[in-house]
Each structure stands twice: as C-alpha cells, then as structure tokens.
Amino acid sequence: MDSGKQNMALREGFLVKRGHLVHNWKARWFVLMPDKLLYYKYEGGKRDSCQRGGILLKDCVMTSPFLEHENRPLVFKLHTKNGVDHFLEACSREERDDWAGDITAAVGKLQTSEGVTAPKQPDPAGSQFHNIDLSKVLDSMYDVHSGINMSIHVEQGNTYSNCFSGSAVVDWLVFMQLTLTRVEAMTLASALLEEGFLRTVGLKSVEAVRTAGLGEQFLDDSTALYSFSDSLKKRGSVKAEASRSAVELSGKVIKRGYLLKQGHRRKNWKLRLFVLRSEPAYLHYYDPTKDDISPAGGFSLRSCLVSSLHDNGVPSGVKGNIQGNLFKIITQSDIHYFMQAPTHQQKTDWIDAIRQQT
User: Picking from 18-27, 78-87, 117-126, 310-319, which range would have the lowest pLDDT averaged per residue?
Assistant: First the structure.
C-alpha cells in the first residue's frame, strides 16, 4: 500500500470512548485510516492538534453490537492484537453499523494485503438458526442478567411499560450470537411473534403484522414496540420519565447526531447528542458521557427560527474557539441556541430537517 493511500482518512466523526483506567465515557473525534484508528480531544470548539491515541487495526476483532453496557445500546467493541478492548459509542444505530462496517473492511484489507485470507463467514443457511429451540431463546431473553432490557416507551402520546423496540431485539439476537445477521434475527423474531412468545405493542408493530408476509412480520425499527406475552415473568419496569412530559418525547425520531452546543451561562462548548422529533416537533439534547436516558434539555420547535452563521469572524453572542459550521436557533420565547456541526454538509442537513418541523 503506497504512502498516499496510507495517509488517506476513510471516515471521520465523533464517538464516545470509555477510558481504560478510569471507566468514564468521553467524547473524542475519531479518524479512521487504512491501518489505524486515531482519536483526538475537542477543546472548546476546536479539535486538539495533538493526537490523544491510536488503535492499530491489524488483527483486530470487531463486536457490533456490544450490549453489555446497560443503557448504552449503540456501543461496539474493538479487540486489538495485544488483547486490549476499546469500547466506542455512536450517536445512532446507522452510525454504529457504518463505523463497524468500515473498520471491519479496513481490518480485512490489511489481512488480504499480507496474503492472509479474511475468515469466511459461516453460511447462514447451515447455521444453528434452523435448529433453534424457540422456548430456549425466550428463556435467554427473560434472563435477569444477560436478557433483553425492558423499559417504558412512548408512541403517539401513549405510554407503554415493560416493552422493548424491534431494533433492540435484533441487536440482542446478533450480540448473543443466536443469529449471524440482522436479516436472520428479524426472521427469528418473526417466528417468536408467530408462536405467541412475543406480542406487538402500539400501532406500528401491529400494522406490520397485518400487512407483512410470513417471516417478515417483525420490524428492525427503534419505534416499533414489542413485549413478552406474559410480561409479569420479567423484572419490573423502569421509572417513568419525571422531568419531561411524555408528550414531549412521544414524537417520531427524525434525526440523531452529535453537535457542539454553546452553554447559556459559561458560554463554553460541549458535545451533545441531539434528537429531533416530529408530532410534536421537539429538539432534545443529551450528555453523551452519561448513560442516563433523560435529556439534559430541549425545546419545542414551534415558531422557531433557524439560520446558518458565517464562519468568517465570530458572530454576536458566540464566544470561545470556533471550529466552524455554525448555526443558530431562536425559540418562540426568544432563547438563542448556538450549535456547531462536524461538517458543512451536516450543518445543512440539520438546518433543513429543523426547518421542516418549525
């Protein structure tokens, strides 16, 4: 591989990384190179020029999804040749799968370039899936320690307890190696549904059962809800969200992603996970270093004004180091929010998505 290709970034973006010595979670800017994964610290709004660390990809093993961190379903694990585990969290399932796929491809190319054949994936048709005992799968899902987590979900203003999303089930089946692929996991989950081990909760999953063909009734979707047929056998539900009304969080998720947000009091820049919902239209933000499910803040998008800010010079109301790709949201109550997106394209995408909801 020539040096030009070796120095070419394959992918860049924010991920949240767990520390090795102190097991806290910190946001870092990651750059995937053909042979290594580099990460940098963000100070204020600027990427620290000094590299914080790097992970050599040769002979690494990827586990995605990695579901052993409760309340962090978007983690994947990278196990290095030297036996070190790196736990990284993305902002969405799509981002997690894209990062995992790109890293796995880079590892495979390194093996191929050295004359090592990448390990062949087992043939799904010949896997253990066809001989699976559905009642044993159900027992594993019920398991208090390693089973699937149940919680409260809101769909179209209705609150449902003791349930889980379709994509959480698919993640769990792949992670537990009961299936090899997400498609296979959907087929297995459909079988659990057809046999009456699982039941639909809410309109979206009910509609899928009514309209889909046999074996395709289960949705790999974070807004399609399911539960055990006998939910009393499972441990109790989590506490309902107290600080935010259920209505606020009941809308359909339109967009998720990491943005830098300026604080209102200290005017410092911090990375936040933003979630855009519609019907009702709200923008919530979360602290990605914490594993709680409560938003750190949020506001209604009704009558909001969103505008792009120029990167040349520092606009009024903005302080600190500016990376660029700035935009501003003014709420109906005249509160000004300043955000920075990682790229110009992401800024444009966020502005367009928010404008459609105002």
Answer: 117-126
The model's confidence at residue 235, banded by pLDDT at 50, 70 and 90, is: very low
The closest alpha carbon to 71, from 203, 183, 204, 238, belongs to: 238
Report the pLDDT value the prediction gives residue 139, as an integer from 0 to 100. Answer: 83
Vertex 92, ends 103 and 55: CA angle to 5°?
Answer: 30
Domain 252-355 bears CATH identifier 3.30.70.260: no
Backbone angles phi, psi at 313, to 5 degrees: 90, 165
The pTM score is 0.70
315, 321, 325, 328: CA torsion to nearest 10: -50
Percent of the chain residues past pLDDT 90, beyond the cut: 30
The DSSP code sequence of 23-65 is --EEEEEEEE-SSEEEEEEEETTEEEEEEEEEEE-TT-EEESS
Quote the CA–CA distance of 198 and 223 in Å, as a whole number: 16
State the DSSP H helix or E strand holding residue 88, giving kind and residue range, or none if neither. Answer: strand 85-89
Residue whose structure tokens are 């059962």: 209
> CATH for 124-233, among 3.40.50.1010, 3.40.50.150, 1.10.10.10, 1.10.630.10?
1.10.10.10
Same fold, 3-113 and 252-355: yes
**DSSP of 69-85:** STT-TTEEEEE-TTS-E
| Cβ proximity of 37 and 30 under 8 Å | yes
- Per the structure block, which two tokens stand in for 16? 């949240």
